[in-house]
């Protein structure tokens, strides 16, 4: 497995990215327009035999903090540390770009991701209820 880092929309990988996104997020669509609308988009793709097996996508939030937006690993590849590798590589890349903080949101029903965030030095800074009436936990980490 290797990790591909792309600044901007990963057009060459887009079809596969949509497939793994739908797999991870219960069939949810990832529209190209949504990716194209994000300023400072950074995509990390875990690739094995030219297939995406995991991904981590984020962008620059208007307040200047990098927002780690979407990510996941194919269910057949979970438990192998791929999400942690993607997170570490993302944070290294963000530091190289000059970011001082990274933020992400989590949901209680995705406990593995909550645990991964905590293991990698994120702090819980607040909570909120989104437009779909889902409770979200806000995590932030200072990059050093």
UniProtKB/TrEMBL annotation:
Instruction: Give coiled-coil spans as residue ranges.
Output: none
Q: Name one Pfam family in it.
A: Acetyltransf_7
Lineage: superkingdom: Bacteria
Which part of the chain is the N-acetyltransferase domain? 4-144
Q: Give the SUPFAM superfamilies listed for this entry.
A: Acyl-CoA N-acyltransferases (Nat) (SSF55729)
Q: What protein does this entry describe?
A: GNAT family N-acetyltransferase
**Which species is listed as the source?**
Lysinibacillus xylanilyticus
